[in-house]
Amino acid sequence: MPSVIERFLQSEGGKIEKELEAVIPRKGVPNLNDAVWYHLDSGGKRLRPVLAIATCRAFHGNERQVLPFAAACELFHNWLLVHDDIEDGDTIRRSQPALWQRFGVGHGINVGDYMSEKVYELVLRCGTYGLEPTRLLMLLQKVAETGVMTAIGQAHDLNTKGRQDVSEQEYMETVTLKTALYLMLPILGAATIAGAKEDELKRLERFGMLAGPAFQIADDILDLTAGKGRDEIGCDIKEGKRSLMVIHCSGKCTKEERAKLYAILDKERSQTTNQDIEWVQGLFARHGSVAYAEAVAKKLIAEAKLVSAAFRPEVREVLDGFADYMIERKS
């Protein structure tokens, strides 16, 4: 039986296209509007806008007010992907050339910048549908704070490249900043629009601080097994990412294995072979690093559900469904 999130993805996933087209027409400036839609039309599950809609309903909010914000969350996510592909050197996104590969690095940077500003235009549109100014200001502040914290988290992630002493605590701090906050933006923003109380918003934040890192850990595992939408396995190894599996394995393997592991991670991306990736996969398997990461993710989700238990049933169903979806998804 599909989870509440899967049901919402099936029934509500297409609602935001009109909101996006209202601020970014499909026909416009060459290598800008068409580039945005080249990326957006490539697919994606529309998880974040669906979360916003589902949360707003659970808190008995005004769906008309939340739709522009839901679209803003999708655009926020996608401009981060555009810039992330450039920073990481990923050439494929959702089975087609990444935007920067198709339009060039310069256009890729500019398109991401354009999308990031359109996020705020979409959020402001919530006010045209009756969202009171105080709530609108709270929403804008939350979006701005999330953008800043995500950039700081990305800086921490980039700063770990080349290091062999990254701790599990550092990893958790990085993914909390880089992933947890912006993953929870649709839920926190929608609850704000719906008039959630301050104590409810704080509990939602606590839920996100637990569930968000679990999402990133699951994402790291998917990269090693399914490629997470890039048609390529092991991109994180090619990028030299210090994932939780790397950190765990580094503390378990022999001195010789550790030296080879970091030698592979620190190779130029183009020099990393399929044999290198297969060797790392085997090393993780021998030392139980994938199983360890899965256990950590499941523990975080269990703790997050203790937080969500304090909400009324309709809110808890959305949060718990989201939590389960994060670690059970296959792509």
If you had to describe this structure to a student in words, what would you say it looks like?
It is a single chain. The chain is mainly α and 331 residues long. The chain has one domain: Farnesyl Diphosphate Synthase, CATH 1.10.600. The chain has 16 helices and two strands. The protein starts with a helix and ends with a helix. The mean pLDDT is 92.
Compile the SSE list and pairings.
Elements: H1 4-12, H2 17-23, H3 33-40, H4 47-58, H5 63-88, E1 92-93, E2 96-97, H6 99-103, H7 105-128, H8 133-159, H9 168-193, H10 198-225, H11 235-238, H12 244-250, H13 255-265, H14 274-286, H15 289-308, H16 313-328
Antiparallel strand pairs: 1-2
Helix pairs in contact: 1-4, 4-5, 4-9, 4-16, 5-7, 5-9, 7-8, 8-9, 9-10, 10-15, 10-16, 12-15, 15-16
